[in-house]
């Protein structure tokens, strides 16, 4: 049995099993992070036998089934959430965190650390939805302020007890939250120094097994493990990183960010293990760790497990998605069984019952008017003539506004972007003159892409635009904060003849050696539409967690009325 000695953490799931040795103690940490209000399963693409297969991953109903199964096989369990439980779907837009907390109560989380997106609506809204949490919520480096409602809702750490064994869990959040979200007047102290103080306090209380539950990103987690003595495990979030054994993700057509778990040498020479578990509850980490009597880790292993529904689809000859049957389905099921990182999981009835009234409440919200369009804003993927015969020599009238919304959002949270880039295929339709609704936004951008911020050299920006000019179709690039000329009479790779970046009221020619910060969508940042230059970019790379449709909605609410742009920023010279 697990007993909470100090109610201070949210989102930790630990499982204990007896092991060989006098006082060996086995702990299984079950963990998720960056679930971002994705309460329902998410559409995704995996590869089976090198064939693209459309699946659904996650959903809190399946997460509960998996958590229950792990608990059933282990005598002591603790469940951890590494932050950003909210912000990303209409569930948070409408209900402001209540259903997320209720689902976490249903699953029996032991602790959660605050992520930056918990602060997006300000500390008062955060404090309000945390009142629904029946588990400890942690953030040791938060300085909420004397009058803040958060002072009574958030604690620095918690001590969990399993049949006499005590485990300390410290919550740490990235300090940049102060500029990428809205925590004011709350501030954040140095996470590493705070961790050292908390470790000393816990050790002073006789705790020799310590987990850092963090929302700082995978790279920062590894630095923490190497810098602060006394930490045994780092369970992290923020970077949306998926880890594996070096081969399992590639077999599924996914990218690995590193090994699960990642072993780091601590400052005292001990092994420290770092884990994280992707995003949106599409995967759950299950980490089994054995400690000796002195609190040293003697064994550590596990996996992040993809939670699959039992639906598998592929496109037929006409491009229509059809359900796999017979031998094709059996082959996929066999591949799932053989993979240590994939599992078909059924839904939990209690979780489905909890979701039902919230899901029904979203139906009316789709008709909510958020603004209006002063003129029609037609869409075309590549400049030219639409199917209805309308001539759009500068291209889409709505895609540049989508880019404007991306640039505005990144600017508003202090990310200092220079330009935004959106592929024409990522915008699905035009917008008619008149009211713009919530449903309009989600019809316009239905894929749930998040905004990504990348640092690129000017030459890479040019190459990205060339990719759009070469592939055309859905890959064609629309921009904000930039303008460019594309000549379709020139050879592929040489069609973009000029690029300028806006600097206040003036324009500057793109410098191939200078560094520019681009905001784009996760689909393109991951190499979609062959934007390999974005996928392979090194340096600063940050998934904001902001969903494109939600960003567009916020932008429309701010602008109130959308006007057709005088210029899309594109001078398009068609082929002769």
From TrEMBL:
Keyword list, A-Z: Hydrolase, Metal-binding, Nucleotide-binding, Signal
Signal peptide: 1-24
Keyword Signal: yes
Protein name: Bifunctional NAD pyrophosphatase/5'-nucleotidase
Protein family membership: Belongs to the 5'-nucleotidase family.
Organism field: Pseudodesulfovibrio senegalensis
Annotated ranges, domain Calcineurin-like phosphoesterase: 28-241
InterPro entries per UniProt: 5'-Nucleotdase_C (IPR008334), 5'-Nucleotdase_C_sf (IPR036907), 5'-Nucleotdase_CS (IPR006146), 5_nucleotidase/apyrase (IPR006179), Calcineurin-like_PHP (IPR004843), Metallo-depent_PP-like (IPR029052)
CDD domains, per database record: MPP_CD73_N (cd07409)
Gene Ontology molecular functions: hydrolase activity, acting on ester bonds; metal ion binding; nucleotide binding
Positions of the 5'-Nucleotidase C-terminal domain: 394-535
GO biological processes: nucleotide catabolic process
Superkingdom of origin: Bacteria
């Amino acid at each position: 049995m697990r007993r909470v000695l100090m109610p201070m953490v949210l989102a930790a799931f630990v499982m204990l099993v007896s092991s060989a040795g006098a006082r060996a103690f086995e702990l299984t940490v079950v963990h998720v992070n960056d679930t971002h209000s994705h309460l329902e399963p998410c559409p995704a693409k995996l590869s089976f036998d090198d064939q693209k297969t459309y699946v659904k991953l996650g959903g809190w109903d399946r997460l509960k089934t998996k958590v229950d199964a792990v608990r059933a096989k282990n005598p002591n369990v603790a469940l951890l959430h590494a932050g950003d439980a909210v912000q990303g779907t209409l569930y948070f837009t409408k209900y402001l965190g209540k259903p997320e907390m209720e689902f976490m109560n249903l699953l029996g989380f032991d602790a959660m650390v605050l992520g930056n997106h918990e602060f997006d609506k300000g500390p008062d809204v955060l404090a309000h939805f945390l009142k629904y949490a029946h588990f400890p919520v942690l953030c040791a480096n938060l300085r909420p302020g004397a009058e803040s409602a958060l002072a009574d809702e958030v604690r620095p750490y918690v001590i969990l007890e399993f049949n006499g064994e005590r485990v300390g869990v410290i919550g740490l959040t990235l300090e940049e939250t102060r500029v990428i979200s809205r925590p004011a007047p709350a501030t954040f102290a140095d996470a590493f120094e705070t961790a050292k103080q908390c470790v000393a306090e816990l050790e002073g209380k006789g705790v020799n097994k310590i987990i850092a539950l963090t929302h700082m990103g995978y790279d920062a987690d590894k630095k923490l493990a190497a810098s602060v003595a006394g930490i045994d495990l780092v369970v992290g979030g923020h970077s949306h990183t998926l880890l594996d054994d070096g081969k399992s993700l590639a077999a599924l057509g996914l990218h690995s960010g590193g090994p699960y778990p990642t072993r780091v040498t601590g400052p005292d020479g001990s092994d420290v293990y770092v884990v994280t578990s992707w995003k949106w509850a599409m995967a759950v980490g299950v980490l089994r760790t054995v400690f000796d009597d002195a609190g040293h880790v003697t064994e550590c292993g596990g996996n992040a497990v993809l939670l699959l529904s039992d639906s598998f689809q592929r496109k037929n000859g006409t491009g229509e998605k059809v359900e796999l049957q017979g031998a094709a389905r059996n082959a996929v099921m066999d591949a799932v069984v053989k993979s240590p990182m994939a599992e078909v999981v059924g839904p939990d009835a209690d979780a489905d019952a909890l979701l039902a009234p919230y899901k029904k409440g979203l139906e009316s919200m789709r008709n909510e008017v958020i603004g209006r369009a002063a003129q029609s804003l037609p869409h075309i993927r590549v400049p030219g003539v639409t199917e209805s015969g309308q001539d759009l020599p500068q291209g889409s009238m709505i895609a540049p506004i989508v880019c404007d919304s991306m640039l505005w959002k990144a600017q508003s949270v202090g990310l200092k972007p220079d330009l935004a880039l959106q592929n024409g295929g990522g915008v699905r339709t035009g917008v008619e003159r008149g009211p713009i609704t919530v449903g309009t936004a989600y019809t316009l951008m239905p894929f749930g892409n998040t905004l990504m911020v990348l640092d690129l050299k000017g030459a890479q920006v040019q190459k990205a635009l060339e990719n759009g000019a070469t592939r055309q179709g859905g890959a064609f690039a629309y921009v904000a904060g930039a303008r460019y000329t594309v000549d379709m009479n020139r050879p592929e790779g040489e069609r973009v003849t000029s690029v300028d970046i806006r600097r206040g009221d003036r324009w500057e020619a793109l410098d191939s050696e200078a560094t520019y910060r681009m905001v784009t969508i996760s689909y393109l940042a991951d190499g979609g539409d062959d934007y390999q230059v974005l996928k392979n970019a090194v340096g600063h790379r940050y998934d904001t967690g902001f969903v494109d449709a939600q960003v567009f909605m916020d932008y429309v609410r701010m602008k109130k009325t959308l006007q057709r742009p005088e210029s899309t920023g594109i001078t398009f010279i068609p082929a002769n």
